[in-house]
Design goal:
single chain, about 230 residues, alpha/beta, Rossmann fold, 7-stranded mixed beta sheet, 8 helices, about 20% strand, binds S-adenosylmethionine
Length: about 230
Protein backbone atom coordinates (compact mmCIF):
# COMPACT_ATOMS: atom_id res chain seq x y z
CA UNK A 1 0.00 0.00 0.00
CA UNK A 2 1.28 3.47 -0.90
CA UNK A 3 2.10 5.58 2.15
CA UNK A 4 0.71 9.07 1.64
CA UNK A 5 3.13 11.81 2.62
CA UNK A 6 2.42 15.57 2.47
CA UNK A 7 4.35 15.68 -0.84
CA UNK A 8 2.29 12.85 -2.31
CA UNK A 9 -0.97 14.49 -1.21
CA UNK A 10 0.19 17.76 -2.83
CA UNK A 11 1.16 16.00 -6.08
CA UNK A 12 -2.16 14.12 -6.09
CA UNK A 13 -4.10 17.36 -5.62
CA UNK A 14 -2.18 18.96 -8.52
CA UNK A 15 -2.90 15.98 -10.77
CA UNK A 16 -6.60 15.93 -9.84
CA UNK A 17 -6.79 19.68 -10.46
CA UNK A 18 -5.35 19.24 -13.96
CA UNK A 19 -7.52 16.30 -14.93
CA UNK A 20 -10.78 17.08 -13.12
CA UNK A 21 -10.35 20.86 -13.01
CA UNK A 22 -13.43 22.58 -14.33
CA UNK A 23 -16.43 22.21 -16.58
CA UNK A 24 -15.53 25.03 -18.96
CA UNK A 25 -18.03 27.48 -17.49
CA UNK A 26 -17.42 31.01 -16.14
CA UNK A 27 -18.09 29.54 -12.68
CA UNK A 28 -14.73 27.74 -12.93
CA UNK A 29 -12.83 31.06 -12.84
CA UNK A 30 -14.91 32.25 -9.92
CA UNK A 31 -14.22 29.06 -7.97
CA UNK A 32 -10.50 29.09 -8.85
CA UNK A 33 -10.02 32.56 -7.37
CA UNK A 34 -12.60 32.47 -4.57
CA UNK A 35 -10.29 31.30 -1.77
CA UNK A 36 -7.57 33.87 -2.53
CA UNK A 37 -10.17 36.63 -2.72
CA UNK A 38 -11.67 35.36 0.53
CA UNK A 39 -8.26 35.37 2.25
CA UNK A 40 -7.67 38.95 1.02
CA UNK A 41 -11.01 39.87 2.63
CA UNK A 42 -9.89 38.29 5.92
CA UNK A 43 -11.65 34.90 5.64
CA UNK A 44 -9.74 31.85 6.91
CA UNK A 45 -8.50 29.32 4.34
CA UNK A 46 -10.64 26.46 5.64
CA UNK A 47 -12.88 25.67 2.66
CA UNK A 48 -13.05 22.14 1.28
CA UNK A 49 -10.44 21.25 -1.33
CA UNK A 50 -11.32 21.38 -5.04
CA UNK A 51 -11.52 17.58 -5.24
CA UNK A 52 -13.99 17.47 -2.33
CA UNK A 53 -15.94 20.32 -3.97
CA UNK A 54 -16.17 18.32 -7.15
CA UNK A 55 -17.30 15.24 -5.23
CA UNK A 56 -20.02 17.33 -3.54
CA UNK A 57 -21.17 18.44 -7.00
CA UNK A 58 -21.38 14.88 -8.29
CA UNK A 59 -23.20 13.68 -5.14
CA UNK A 60 -25.69 16.55 -5.38
CA UNK A 61 -26.34 15.76 -9.04
CA UNK A 62 -26.90 12.07 -8.22
CA UNK A 63 -29.73 12.84 -5.79
CA UNK A 64 -31.31 15.65 -7.83
CA UNK A 65 -34.28 14.99 -10.06
CA UNK A 66 -34.70 16.48 -13.55
CA UNK A 67 -36.30 19.62 -12.08
CA UNK A 68 -33.32 20.22 -9.77
CA UNK A 69 -32.46 19.21 -6.22
CA UNK A 70 -32.92 20.76 -2.78
CA UNK A 71 -29.98 20.94 -0.39
CA UNK A 72 -29.02 22.47 2.95
CA UNK A 73 -25.48 23.33 4.06
CA UNK A 74 -24.32 24.16 7.60
CA UNK A 75 -21.14 26.30 7.46
CA UNK A 76 -20.96 28.53 4.36
CA UNK A 77 -17.68 30.42 4.85
CA UNK A 78 -17.14 32.23 1.50
CA UNK A 79 -19.51 30.06 -0.52
CA UNK A 80 -16.91 27.73 -2.10
CA UNK A 81 -18.51 24.37 -1.23
CA UNK A 82 -21.96 25.91 -1.65
CA UNK A 83 -21.23 26.86 -5.25
CA UNK A 84 -20.08 23.31 -6.06
CA UNK A 85 -23.25 21.90 -4.47
CA UNK A 86 -25.47 24.43 -6.25
CA UNK A 87 -23.85 23.45 -9.55
CA UNK A 88 -24.68 19.79 -8.87
CA UNK A 89 -28.30 20.59 -7.97
CA UNK A 90 -28.87 21.90 -11.49
CA UNK A 91 -30.39 25.14 -12.75
CA UNK A 92 -33.77 24.42 -11.11
CA UNK A 93 -32.14 23.41 -7.82
CA UNK A 94 -32.10 25.33 -4.54
CA UNK A 95 -29.51 25.47 -1.79
CA UNK A 96 -30.07 26.97 1.65
CA UNK A 97 -26.79 27.59 3.43
CA UNK A 98 -26.32 28.59 7.07
CA UNK A 99 -23.49 30.82 8.34
CA UNK A 100 -23.00 32.24 11.82
CA UNK A 101 -20.26 34.80 11.06
CA UNK A 102 -21.62 38.01 9.44
CA UNK A 103 -18.36 38.79 7.60
CA UNK A 104 -18.32 35.34 5.98
CA UNK A 105 -22.02 35.63 5.15
CA UNK A 106 -21.57 39.00 3.41
CA UNK A 107 -18.69 37.68 1.29
CA UNK A 108 -20.61 34.51 0.36
CA UNK A 109 -23.79 36.41 -0.55
CA UNK A 110 -21.85 38.42 -3.13
CA UNK A 111 -20.35 35.20 -4.56
CA UNK A 112 -23.76 33.53 -4.91
CA UNK A 113 -25.16 36.64 -6.57
CA UNK A 114 -22.23 36.79 -8.99
CA UNK A 115 -22.72 33.13 -9.89
CA UNK A 116 -26.44 33.63 -10.49
CA UNK A 117 -27.29 30.45 -8.60
CA UNK A 118 -30.41 29.88 -6.51
CA UNK A 119 -28.76 29.99 -3.12
CA UNK A 120 -30.38 31.42 -0.01
CA UNK A 121 -28.07 32.31 2.86
CA UNK A 122 -29.46 32.19 6.41
CA UNK A 123 -27.32 34.07 8.87
CA UNK A 124 -27.32 32.38 12.28
CA UNK A 125 -26.23 29.31 14.18
CA UNK A 126 -26.87 25.92 12.65
CA UNK A 127 -28.67 24.56 15.70
CA UNK A 128 -31.04 27.54 15.75
CA UNK A 129 -31.70 27.76 12.00
CA UNK A 130 -32.12 24.04 11.26
CA UNK A 131 -35.33 23.57 13.32
CA UNK A 132 -36.85 26.66 11.65
CA UNK A 133 -35.93 25.29 8.23
CA UNK A 134 -37.57 21.99 9.11
CA UNK A 135 -40.79 23.87 9.93
CA UNK A 136 -40.63 25.89 6.71
CA UNK A 137 -39.60 23.17 4.27
CA UNK A 138 -41.25 20.21 5.98
CA UNK A 139 -39.95 16.73 6.72
CA UNK A 140 -38.38 14.64 3.92
CA UNK A 141 -38.13 17.76 1.73
CA UNK A 142 -34.39 17.72 0.99
CA UNK A 143 -32.14 15.65 -1.24
CA UNK A 144 -28.84 16.46 0.48
CA UNK A 145 -27.52 18.01 3.71
CA UNK A 146 -23.85 18.99 4.00
CA UNK A 147 -22.29 19.56 7.43
CA UNK A 148 -19.15 21.70 7.72
CA UNK A 149 -19.52 23.95 10.81
CA UNK A 150 -18.84 23.11 14.49
CA UNK A 151 -17.52 19.54 14.67
CA UNK A 152 -18.81 18.92 18.20
CA UNK A 153 -22.33 19.74 16.95
CA UNK A 154 -22.36 17.25 14.04
CA UNK A 155 -24.49 14.71 15.89
CA UNK A 156 -27.08 17.38 16.75
CA UNK A 157 -27.07 18.75 13.16
CA UNK A 158 -27.57 15.18 11.96
CA UNK A 159 -30.75 14.78 14.05
CA UNK A 160 -32.28 17.70 12.12
CA UNK A 161 -30.80 16.48 8.85
CA UNK A 162 -32.39 13.06 9.33
CA UNK A 163 -35.81 14.77 9.45
CA UNK A 164 -35.11 17.11 6.53
CA UNK A 165 -33.85 14.35 4.24
CA UNK A 166 -36.15 12.24 2.11
CA UNK A 167 -35.49 8.47 2.06
CA UNK A 168 -32.57 8.04 -0.35
CA UNK A 169 -31.29 11.55 0.38
CA UNK A 170 -27.66 12.11 1.37
CA UNK A 171 -26.06 13.32 4.56
CA UNK A 172 -22.47 14.43 3.87
CA UNK A 173 -20.08 15.65 6.58
CA UNK A 174 -16.56 17.04 6.20
CA UNK A 175 -13.57 16.51 8.55
CA UNK A 176 -14.76 13.13 9.83
CA UNK A 177 -11.11 12.06 10.11
CA UNK A 178 -10.10 15.35 11.67
CA UNK A 179 -8.86 18.63 10.30
CA UNK A 180 -5.52 19.48 11.91
CA UNK A 181 -5.16 16.10 13.55
CA UNK A 182 -5.98 12.49 12.68
CA UNK A 183 -8.81 10.51 14.22
CA UNK A 184 -6.09 8.06 15.26
CA UNK A 185 -5.15 10.45 18.08
CA UNK A 186 -6.13 8.92 21.44
CA UNK A 187 -9.58 9.49 22.89
CA UNK A 188 -9.54 12.55 25.13
CA UNK A 189 -6.84 14.28 23.03
CA UNK A 190 -9.29 16.87 21.73
CA UNK A 191 -13.02 17.40 22.41
CA UNK A 192 -13.77 17.93 18.70
CA UNK A 193 -11.93 14.70 17.86
CA UNK A 194 -14.04 12.81 20.41
CA UNK A 195 -17.27 14.37 19.14
CA UNK A 196 -16.50 13.46 15.53
CA UNK A 197 -15.51 9.95 16.63
CA UNK A 198 -18.87 9.58 18.42
CA UNK A 199 -20.66 10.98 15.34
CA UNK A 200 -18.88 8.50 13.04
CA UNK A 201 -19.69 5.57 15.33
CA UNK A 202 -23.36 6.59 15.48
CA UNK A 203 -23.56 7.19 11.71
CA UNK A 204 -21.96 3.82 11.00
CA UNK A 205 -24.34 1.94 13.30
CA UNK A 206 -27.71 0.48 12.24
CA UNK A 207 -29.39 2.74 14.83
CA UNK A 208 -28.62 5.87 12.76
CA UNK A 209 -31.01 4.97 9.95
CA UNK A 210 -28.27 5.73 7.39
CA UNK A 211 -26.22 3.56 5.05
CA UNK A 212 -22.84 5.21 5.56
CA UNK A 213 -19.21 5.25 4.54
CA UNK A 214 -16.32 7.67 4.90
CA UNK A 215 -14.19 8.72 1.94
CA UNK A 216 -10.70 8.53 3.43
CA UNK A 217 -9.12 11.58 1.85
CA UNK A 218 -6.89 13.69 4.10
CA UNK A 219 -9.70 14.96 6.32
CA UNK A 220 -12.39 12.38 5.70
CA UNK A 221 -15.78 12.97 4.08
CA UNK A 222 -18.66 10.93 5.53
CA UNK A 223 -21.32 10.08 2.93
CA UNK A 224 -24.54 8.50 4.14
CA UNK A 225 -27.81 7.56 2.45
CA UNK A 226 -31.04 8.04 4.41
CA UNK A 227 -32.78 4.67 4.64
C1 LIG B 1 -15.01 25.00 7.61
S1 LIG B 1 -15.86 26.49 7.39
C2 LIG B 1 -16.99 26.10 6.09
C3 LIG B 1 -16.31 25.92 4.77
C4 LIG B 1 -17.27 25.84 3.60
N1 LIG B 1 -18.22 24.75 3.78
C5 LIG B 1 -16.49 25.60 2.34
O1 LIG B 1 -15.96 24.49 2.19
O2 LIG B 1 -16.40 26.51 1.50
C6 LIG B 1 -16.94 26.57 8.76
C7 LIG B 1 -17.85 27.77 8.76
O3 LIG B 1 -18.85 27.55 9.75
C8 LIG B 1 -19.12 28.79 10.34
N2 LIG B 1 -19.75 28.54 11.65
C9 LIG B 1 -19.16 28.49 12.87
N3 LIG B 1 -20.06 28.18 13.81
C10 LIG B 1 -21.24 28.02 13.18
C11 LIG B 1 -22.53 27.67 13.60
N4 LIG B 1 -22.80 27.42 14.89
N5 LIG B 1 -23.51 27.61 12.68
C12 LIG B 1 -23.25 27.86 11.38
N6 LIG B 1 -22.04 28.19 10.91
C13 LIG B 1 -21.04 28.26 11.80
C14 LIG B 1 -17.79 29.49 10.42
O4 LIG B 1 -17.95 30.89 10.59
C15 LIG B 1 -17.17 29.10 9.09
O5 LIG B 1 -17.46 30.06 8.12
Amino acid sequence: MTSMTPDRWAATATYLGEVFGGLGEPLDDQLATLMDRGAAAGLPRIAVSADVGRLLMVLASLVSGPGGGRAVEVGTLGGYSGLWIARGLGTGGRLTTIEAEPKHAAFARAEFQRAGRRVELREGKGLEVLPRLLEELGPASCDMVFLDAIKSEYRAYAEHAARLLRPGGLLVADNCLGSHWWITDPAGADPARDAVDAFNRWLGSPASGFLACCVANREGLAVARRL
